[in-house]
Amino acid sequence: MRIIKKGKVDKSRCVACGACVKACPIGAVTVWKGRHAVIDENLCIGCGKCENVCPAGSIEIVAREVRQSDAQTLV
Amino acid sequence: MRKRWYDYLWIWSILFFALGFFNILFAWLGLIDFLVPLLFAIIGGNKMFCNRYCGRGQLFSVLGGTLKFSRNKKVPGWLSSKWFRYGFLAFFLAMFGNMLFQTWLVARGANSLTEAIQLFWTLKLPWDWAYTAGMVPDWVAKFSFGFYSLMLTSTLIGLIVMALYKPRTWCAFCPMGTMTQGICKIKRDKDESAPLPTAHE
Lengths: 75, 201
Fold this sequence. Notes:
The complex is a heterodimer of chains A (about 80) and B (about 200). Chain A is α+β, with helices and mostly antiparallel strands. Chain A has one domain: Alpha-Beta Plaits (2-Layer Sandwich). Chain A has helices at about 20-25, 50-55, 70-75; strands at about 1-10, 30, 35-40, 60-65. In chain A, the strands form two sheets. Chain A has a two-stranded antiparallel sheet. In chain A, strands 2-3 form a two-stranded antiparallel sheet. The radius of gyration of chain A is 12 Å and the shape is elongated. Chain B is mainly alpha-helical and about 200 residues long. In chain B, strand 1 and strand 2 (about 125) form a beta hairpin. The interface of A and B includes residues 15, 21 and 53 of A.
């Protein structure tokens, strides 16, 4: 087992300002149709920059355990 | 990431206040910041203005983020709660409406023009150097003073919350942001056939 970190958006709190989009170093975040941010789990490296800039506290970095074989494809 | 021309729009935010300091009539240009976000939301169904072109958001990022004039503390939850966001929007629209009403009163000749700006809707600040009486009809000048006051007050609120919490705290309850997000949500609800969000979108 291995632990990976990914950003998670609370859609009900997101104000869709796009601060996270600008903060993301690899372009994994987009604002979907002006409604809320969406993080591409396949690209996210869990660095937490989006969580740090979010003015609405709607992004959280969550850690979860994955099997070694799945971790290969996710990371 | 490579900087693009629109990453420098924070300069516009400063320029706007500088221009209005010398000639209040430049305040009319502030309508760009009022209409463009609405056009993006109504026509494009997006918040591209907030996401990319908002000079004020960028200014807060530069001052609070790059130059570190922000404590960068967690923003209190109520500031981005629905009731506060919509309440603040209602308050702002009421103040905007009042400003239009005052302009109308001057246009009708019921009130005379005062060459002053009003901070936080209460503090009157003389601003007479920025206008020569008779340059334009009185109501045109009245709108300028009123709109400049609104822009300056909201920027000051934004700067205060920037210093206290995160750089872009203002964005959490910005009336334009609330309004445009609301429009985007209504648009999406109407268009049921729109695809659901996918990871790649």
